[in-house]
Amino acid sequence: xxxxxxxxxxxxxxxxxxxxxxxxxxxxGLMENNVFIxxxxxxxxxxxxxxxxxxxxxxxxxxxxxxxxNSMKDWKTAGEISFKxxxxxxxxxxxxxxxSALAINNxxxxxxxxxxxxxxxGVKVEKDL
Length: 129
Hints:
- This protein is α/β, with parallel strands linked by helices.
- Helices cover 53% and strands 12% of the residues.
- The chain is built from 6 helices and 5 strands.
- It is globular.
- The relative contact order is 0.20.
């Protein structure tokens, strides 16, 4: 794997559905310390589980993934991104705006299936590994 990646929710969902291609990419990235998770992704994943036992299993799995935390700089970058996009008539969910800011500020690719990340200037998107 060439560049460190911030894995978006859409890819983690495929991982947990046992998509072999995605499992290989993520596991290789974890071994190389090139895969990261962010707060908005953690919250999105945990909100989607169906039971308390699933919640606990997922929370334990997430704890094994290196975490990128938000700084004030990231929140300001997110505000700037959203401001500029909205001025151009583009609205993206705030969760994905902060993921974009984290990726930009930490020089990470965003591995995602969501098309709207391509709308964010400066975000490097990986859709197909």
